[in-house]
Amino acid sequence: MNEKYAKLLLEKTKEDYNQIAEEFSRVREKPWPEFEFLINNYLTDGERILDLGCGNGRLLEFLKERKIDYLGVDFSKNLITEAKKKYPPRPRPPEDKDKKGMFLPQVRFQIADALNLPLPNNYFNKIYSIATLHHIPSKEFRLRFLKEAKRVLKPGGLLILTCWKFKDKRELYLILKYTILKVIGKSKLDHRDIFEPWGKEIKRYYHCFSKKELLNLVKKADFEIIESGIIRNEKGNRNNIYLIAKK
Fold first, then answer.
1. Which residues contact 159 (CB under 8 A, 6 or more apart)?
2. CB burial class (10 A; 0-12, 13-18, 19+) of residue 184?
3. How crowded is residue 49: how many other Cβ atoms within 10 Å of its Cβ?
4. Residues facing 197 on adjacent strands
5. How many CB atoms neighbour CB 186 within 10 A?
6. What domain count does the chain have?
């Protein structure tokens, strides 16, 4: 995919989510319960956490009682507005402690481009990126996304990442449809790219990762893969690939 078209797709994705932000937040109120092990098994109190592609901030349902510094970033200004409504920012007091001397968490949200994060090097202990990377068009931009995540992670920090793994006939049909369109020269999308409808007017861009492709990409960004697998969703129309990667 050429860079100009990839940039157009990024802008389209941002505007799509700006348009559907209110509805999206309403129907995506809670995080998937199957994902809770990604918090319980890997999060430690006192850490700095980046939620990369935070959407409406729903990952905080798992985090809000934990003693952490949380920053949620997303490139959709309207999704950040929804996140702030749902979870009002909570600043840390100057002394960093409450009256009993216990650590107090901090919650913040920020509009930011994941390909050019306005954040310092070696800052976060953990990055959670839930169902975000598959919205990034082109191999080059997906690699840049991962390298930016690596840059802001502390040495030894972990990237906890998930992407959709389609299992529904509708998505499999869309993969076939756009593959055929590419072969006959009527689509600028890459292989395994699709547009999936949201309502009647919005068609969201996705890249449909295989597990092998995702692992190879993360390794190419110089992460060490610690764990990977599939999160099963028996009730929904898709599973999720997950991986834990170390800087």
1. 126, 127, 129, 146, 149, 150, 153, 218, 223, 243, 244, 245, 246, 247
2. exposed
3. 26
4. 203
5. 9
6. 1
Domain membership of residue 197 as a residue range: 3-246
> Among residues 51, 63, 189, which one has the least CA distance to residue 131?
51
The DSSP element (H or E) to which 27 belongs, if any, is helix 3-27
Residue 163 corresponds to which amino acid?
A: C
CATH code, domain with 115: 3.40.50.150
Q: What is the Cβ-side half-sphere exposure of residue 75, based on CA atoms within 13 angstroms?
A: 17
**132 Cβ contact list (under 8 Å, min separation 6):** 52, 53, 114
**Which of these, 110, 121, 115, 160, lies nearest to 135 by C-alpha position?**
115
The pTM (predicted TM-score) of the whole model is 0.90
Residue 109 CA: distances (Å) to CA of 43, 44, 162, 233: 19, 21, 20, 29
- 57-83: per-residue pLDDT in tens? 999 888 877 888 999 999 999 999 999
pLDDT tens-digit readout, 153-192: 999 999 999 998 876 777 788 888 998 998 898 999 999 9
